[in-house]
Amino acid sequence: MKIWLALPYLVFVHELGHAVAAQLLGLRWRPVMARVHGLPIAPAVGVYLPSGGLPALADLAVATSGPIASLLVAAAAWRFSPHIAVPSAAFGTASLVPIKKQDGWRAWTAARRLLRRA
To answer: How many other CB atoms are there within 10 angstroms of residue 8's CB atom?
Structure first.
């Protein structure tokens, strides 16, 4: 199987992880299309922020749930399809890099807020 055929499914599972976490936390969310330079490139999940923003723990949970979903797919697929496991693990790991406006950045800032309170 060509990996490019699996990529939309891997992105879907990643975004589903964010949606499930938001739903479990009682947050409102909706599917959106992420854009780069005005061009739609990938589905994403938009969480409606309450006034005052998300509590740090909820922000951390939602930010890390997508990468965790990707890493779980990688672990589950490893034995039967490394061609799916490797890109899923790479996607999950790469999305934790703290780049502004990405999952890793949100997780990093939420973790820092939690540590400041401790």
So the answer is: 11
